[in-house]
Amino acid sequence: MREISSDIITETVRDLCIKANCVINDDIKNRLCESAAKETSETAREILGMLCENAEIAKSENVPICQDTGMAIIFIKIGQDVHVTGSFIEDAVNEGVRQGYTEGYLRKSVVADPILRGNTGDNTPAVIHYEIVKGDKIEITVAPKGFGSENMSKVFMLKPSDGIEGIKNAVIKTVCEAGSNPCPPIVIGIGIGGDFEKAAILAKKALLRETSSSSEIPHIKKLEEELLQLVNKTGIGAGGLGGDITAFGVNIETYPTHIAGMPLAVNISCHVTRHETAVI
Amino acid sequence: MTRNIILPVSREEVRKISAGDKILLTGIIYTARDAAHKRMIENKDNKGIDFPFEIEGSAIYFAGPAPAKPGRVIGSVGPTTSGRMDAHSPRLIKEGNLIMIGKGERNNTVVDAMVKYGAVYLAAPGGAGALMAQKVKSCKLCAYEDLGAEAVYELYVEEMPLIAVIDSAGRNLYDEVKKDL
Fold it and tell me: Cα(A192)–Cα(A202) distance, rounded to whole angstroms?
């Protein structure tokens, strides 16, 4: 049994919160730059140019890429041979969020009660997804999620007879309704299968993959490619003002499901789709 | 075309802005998100408290900044989704608000009010918060400090790069893109 101090978890979460918000990851940076070069719409090209410049400023000045530094969505994989010492792991994670959002001058965007709406003042609590895995390590991924894009996401309880066309129609409908709101070019995370909430978590997890990655399942890889083409054909473009590049990537995760259903979750993410991972 | 707009600006000048124009905006603008919109209107209607800034001819930026680092004017400050202000914007336009700055679509009620009173809607590049912060030369709290990032701030901006999306004749670039879908 390996012991890991809760203080290390706090420090790791703090650093990941700041890095994810201020330094654009290489995958998205490359997508932005290559899109700025190949986009044929002048307006969209200019917007992409501004987004590249914005990412440079954020990195060099260590300030947030976007003012919506999100709700902290945190995925923790805990090796079953790990024993966390010190404080309760959930408290340690939230303390990391508190320190990261305060010390990093990140915006506090969390309200304590969804109806009463009082701000918690430190961006806690995070949304935390735990997973028990083999081994003696802890892997932490912080994925700050802004709500301009989160608000445009949808879950569909499709029926088996809806088939692949039903999936495509639902995804395109979601993207078209989202239009300019989620700060396109977007990244689309899709979960298919499981049940209502499993599909949604799969969709969120799909956003953690690089935009250039592909599913290892051949027919899902094909669906990712077809959907990306269809999404870009909408012509929504950067900033929603028309253009060739509406999405940087479509990532799909799947899971077995019930004989009567085909749950589909479409999680829309913006052009700064942020996630940073560390292993302790 | 590119237009340099210096605030305050006349209603006649705003009417000349066409959807598609690139705008470089200079002058005083006010941030307000949903919570501030709601409070401004409730205060006016229920308590007789005047708007926290001169609404006639005003420019409102739908934005909530990140905190400023020491020595900085403001933190990152890109636009928020304007649709959340759709319930309140027609009222403020009627009271004299001339320029709205945000990102994303507006509903027909807002566009009708814009046409009736001659207001425009300008889009800032969504997500470009660090770039926009560089255009802000001064920032001071105007009202509702308790709302934190959602408070009303008075910003002086220089050559803030924007695109006119809906003009005072009701031409709407977002609709033109969506028409083909």
Answer: 8
pLDDT at A125: 98
Minimal C-alpha gap between A217 and chain B (Å): 30
- For residue range A183-214, what is the model confidence (pLDDT) as tens digits? 999 999 999 999 999 999 999 999 999 999 99
- How many domains in chain B? 1
Token pair belonging to B19:
């959807």
Question: Is B88 among the residues known to form the active site?
Answer: no
Instruction: Tell me what pLDDT residue B148 has.
Output: 86
- Give CA B43 to chain center in angstroms: 20
Quick: pLDDT tens for B3-23: 999 999 999 999 999 999 999
Residue in B33, B39, B173, B177 to test binding to A, most A beta-carbons within 10 Å: B177
Do B158 and B164 touch, CB atoms closer than 8 A? Answer: no
pLDDT of the residue at A225:
98
Q: Does residue A49 have a pLDDT over 90?
A: yes
**Domain boundaries, given as residue ranges, for chain A:** 2-20+65-145, 148-274
Q: How far is B11 from chain A (nearest CA, A)?
A: 26
What pLDDT does residue B179 have?
75
Rounded to an integer, what distance in angstroms lies between the CA atom of residue A23 and that of residue A13? Answer: 15
Q: What is the CATH number of the domain that holds B69?
A: 3.20.130.10
Q: Is it the case that residue B178 has pLDDT exceeding 90?
A: no
Q: What residue ranges in B15-109 does DSSP mark as E strands?
A: 22-31, 59-61, 99-102
Give the position of tokens 């309704």: A177
Which of A246, A273, A81, A127 lies closest to A178 in space, CA to CA?
Answer: A246
Q: From the candidates B33, B37, B39, B135, give the one annotated as an active-site residue.
A: B37
First to last CA, chain B: 27
Determine the structural domain holding residue B128 and report its residue range: 2-178
Residues of A in contact with B177 (CB under 8 A): 179, 235-237, 240-242
Token pair recorded at residue A260 = 């009567």
Phi–psi pair at A92, nearest 5 degrees: -65, -40
